């Protein structure tokens, strides 16, 4: 499946805010994301930024994160586009995602497949 790239200004915003917020930066499906204890908690997808807040959590004006149409990721929310202009608000929601990830058990590393 081919995804559209995030605009340069959004990538720059994420790369500027993520070190302030915390977590470990990684790429996922070609987009910058951040992880804590192996748990994904925030990242870019297309022209938006998502955060992981838990099942039933909401962001005013936000919408469920659905990288594939009709298949939302239940714990994730896309921040509203107009919020992306407010760096403090974005950092605040990213920090909430980080705190949620810290409340989860560390994710175990995937086992590598042995050659036969």
Notable features of this structure?
116 residues, alpha+beta, 6-stranded antiparallel β-sheet
Structural summary, described in words:
The chain is α+β, with helices and mostly antiparallel strands. 26% of the residues lie in helices and 32% in strands. It has helices at 8-21, 87-102, and strands spanning 24-28, 31-36, 39-45, 48-52, 63-68, 71-78. A hairpin with a 2-residue loop joins strand 2 (31-36) and strand 3 (39-45). Helix 1 packs across helix 2 (87-102). The mean pLDDT is 92.
Terminal CA distance reads 31 Å
Unreliable spans are: none
Overall geometry comes to globular
Mean pLDDT: 92
Please give the order of strands in the largest beta sheet: 1-2-3-4-6-5
> Helicity, in percent?
25-40%
Beta content: 25-35%
What is the CA-atom radius of gyration, in angstroms? 14 Å
Number of strands: 6
Structural class: alpha+beta
List the total number of helices: 2
Major β-sheet profile: 6 strands, antiparallel
* H/E series: HEEEEEEH
Summarize the structure.
The chain has about 120 residues and is an alpha+beta fold. It is about 25% helix and about 30% strand.
Provide the fold topology:
Blueprint: H1 8-21, E1 24-28, E2 31-36, E3 39-45, E4 48-52, E5 63-68, E6 71-78, H2 87-102
Antiparallel strand pairs: 1-2, 2-3, 3-4, 4-6, 5-6
